[in-house]
Write a structure and sequence with these properties.
The complex is a heterodimer of chains A (about 130) and B (about 525). Chain A is α+β, with helices and mostly antiparallel strands and about 130 residues long. Chain A contains three helices and eight strands. Chain B is α+β, with helices and mostly antiparallel strands and about 525 residues long. Classes of the chains: A alpha+beta (about 130), B alpha+beta (about 525). Strand 4 of chain A pairs antiparallel with strand 8 of chain B.
Chain lengths: ~130, ~525
């Protein structure tokens, strides 16, 4: 999932809609994120390309809203409610996900298995 | 001449008659009763009061002034006597002298048994050591003369024995004369600097390296003489330049032997190799020193010199005080079996540790109280005098005092507090009245504050600080299982014994250190951010 600077990024994504769960005063989603343009990409265990500074899902609380919605550990989040997540700082990503006035977040996530499934089904290179 | 003093009051005229009959020569009251307490002195003085000779009056008035404020037990400047007096009286009891009789010695030189033993030991040892010291000195001087006169003899003998045959000395040869002269001068100075120093100590065995060097020098000179005798004297060699060069080579070789002497005697032990731990056997004071490769006797000498400078002075009164305190406790708790058998051993585990700590706390409190009073008294005493300025000198010449008189003037006001403090901390035998007044005069002369004056009495200083009489340790014996000329070893132990205590010395070798190297390129110091946050949402 490396990108060439100046070229649009293409990826096979899955749309996941998560309903936030109210716990006391907070709305939680039930997963943890890591990564960001201000973080060290080499430490990311889930990325294939170790220069990828995108936001990745690092942990999922089992039984939580994200688990129910089908989010998996290691997914790279491309969009949150229409907002791009491939070039954001870690804190910005957190803020986008935890807006208090939103009850639901619609994520576009990508993972390796998606690419392979498409390749397998289409028999080759996904046409842009 | 033995004098008897009767305690109970006796009819004065009778006593006087007795006294004047038996004491034909003038026995001043100061001679009498030196090894007894001050109270005896007072009694004798009162009875002597009828005889008013001039010196007796002076001494009596001095003592009567001392009756009021100063009752420091040790009389001035009589070391042996002072020690024996203190050892006899462990517990200060003012009623001690009431009903006893005392036999005083002949004059102010009465001695106790222990001091006699000590003196004879000192005498016989010093005689033996002196003999040996003179013997080695004379040997060294003879060897030195031999060494210095040999090159000169080498140069002079051909001129005396076969002057006609001898070739005349050319320029190069005369140049060699100058070099011989200066090298001999340098050798003389170097030998004087290294060997002719005042001896620090008398060691039990011969100093091995020095003996070896002396033997080496002797062999060397003898071999040169042999060669000279056989090849030059017998054959009457005419080549004078060769002879002069031979003499120059001798002096050069002697200088090299002197270099060897410096390395063996001085340089070898500079690098620390051993760490020795010195413990005093009576109170456990411990110090650690670093020594180089030395023989045991030289190491012992170095340790004793450090002892005099570092260890606080040995105070036997402190040990007996703590022992008597402990004994008092145990004594108070004896358990007896009333059925008529032997008394059971005192129950050791049943003493009251709380009581002992209580008593120690009380002792501490007493010491602090006395110290506070002492500080106040001394500060007040110091305000009584001030240094006189130049302008005032003309105004009042009568009241001017030199430091000694000033010290004597202010001493009585602080004497009582000082004496009480010294007695509480069991230091009273270390300081005589004379030494205290001397110290006070010294402090006044050098503009020291009361605190500076008191410093030497508040803490026990190193042994050197006190006068020689109170050192209590002058003759040392080295006790060692290994030979004293062998070197220090790892784990070696030896003892340095003196009359009252001993120093236990253990030596440990400083380990061999294996060091390796790691090179760091200065450009390799680079840093990156390692932020790795994981936020749960």
């Amino acid at each position: 999932m490396s990108f060439v600077p100046g070229q649009p990024v293409t990826a096979v994504v899955q749309r996941i809609e998560i309903q936030k769960l109210r716990q006391g005063n907070n709305l939680i989603l039930g997963f943890s994120i890591g990564g960001g343009i201000d973080q060290d990409p080499g430490q990311n265990p889930f990325s294939e390309d170790k220069t990828d500074k995108g936001i990745y899902v690092t942990r999922i609380t089992s039984g939580g809203p994200a688990d129910v919605a089908g989010l998996m550990m290691g997914d790279k989040i491309m969009q949150v409610n229409g907002w791009d997540m491939t070039m954001v700082t870690h804190d910005k990503a957190r803020k986008r996900l935890t807006k208090k006035n939103e009850d639901v977040v619609r994520l576009l996530v990508t993972r390796k298995s998606l690419e392979e499934a498409v390749k397998h089904s289409m028999g080759g290179y996904p046409r842009p | 001449m033995t004098l008897l003093i009767w305690r109970r009051p006796i009819h004065p005229p009778l006593l006087l008659a007795q006294w004047s009959a038996s004491t034909g020569s003038c026995v001043s009251p100061r001679c009498v009763g030196y090894s007894a307490s001050q109270r005896e002195n007072k009694l004798v003085h009162r009875q002597f009061g009828l005889e008013r000779s001039r010196d007796r009056h002076k001494s009596r008035s001095k003592d009567s002034r001392s009756e009021k404020s100063v009752t420091i037990n040790t009389p001035p400047a009589e070391p042996l006597l002072g020690d024996s007096a203190v050892r006899g009286e462990q517990v200060q009891d003012d009623n001690w002298g009431e009903t006893t009789t005392a036999v005083t010695g002949t004059s102010e030189h009465s001695l106790s048994q222990e001091d006699i033993v000590r003196i004879t030991k000192d005498l016989e040892d010093s005689v033996g050591l002196d003999c040996r010291r003179y013997f080695t000195r004379t040997l060294a001087v003879i060897l030195g003369l031999l060494v210095f006169l040999t090159p000169l003899a080498f140069l002079v003998l051909p001129h005396l024995l076969w002057p006609e045959k001898l070739q005349s000395c050319g320029t190069a040869c005369e140049g060699l004369f100058i070099s011989v002269a200066f090298k001999l001068l340098i050798l003389l100075l170097a030998v004087w600097a290294l060997f002719f120093r005042p001896a620090r100590a008398g060691l039990p065995r011969v100093f091995v390296f020095r003996a070896l060097l002396a033997v080496l020098v002797l062999l060397f000179v003898v071999s040169y003489w042999l060669f000279y005798g056989v090849r030059i004297l017998d054959s009457q060699d005419e080549n004078y330049q060769g002879i002069v060069q031979y003499a120059v080579s001798l002096v050069d070789a002697l200088l090299f032997i002197h270099y060897l002497a410096i390395v063996l005697l001085e340089l070898r032990q500079l690098q620390p190799c051993f760490s020795v731990c010195v413990t005093r056997s009576t109170d456990g004071e411990t110090r650690h020193y670093n020594l180089g490769q030395l023989s045991i006797q030289r190491a012992a000498l170095a340790i004793i010199e450090h002892y005099y400078c570092d260890f606080p002075v040995h105070n036997p009164a402190l040990l007996s005080a703590s022992k008597s305190r402990a004994a008092k406790h145990l004594a108070g708790l004896k358990v007896y079996n009333v059925d008529g058998e032997f008394p059971a051993a005192p129950a050791e585990g049943e003493w009251d540790p709380a009581a002992e700590t209580r008593e120690e706390a009380e002792h501490e409190r007493r010491v602090r109280k006395r110290k506070a009073r002492l500080v106040v008294a001394v500060e007040e005493a110091f305000t009584h005098i001030k240094r006189m300025q130049e302008e005032e000198q003309k105004k009042a010449p009568g009241d001017v005092m030199d430091p000694r008189e000033a010290a004597q003037a202010i001493f009585p006001s602080m004497a009582r507090a000082l004496q009480k403090y010294l007695r509480t901390t069991k230091q009273q035998h270390c300081h005589s009245m004379e030494s205290i007044q001397q110290h006070l005069a010294f402090c006044i002369t050098n503009n020291m504050t009361p605190k500076a004056f008191l410093e030497s009495y508040l803490t026990p200083g190193p042994t050197l600080q006190y006068s020689r009489d109170h050192w209590l340790a002058r003759q040392w014996t080295l006790i060692s299982e290994a030979s004293v000329t062998s070197g220090l070893k790892d784990g070696g132990v030896f003892l340095l014994k003196c009359v009252d205590f001993s120093l236990v010395v253990t030596s440990k070798k400083i380990p061999y250190i294996q060091m390796s190297e790691e090179y760091i390129d200065p450009k390799s110091h680079k840093f990156v951010l390692r932020l790795q946050s994981e936020t749960s949402v």
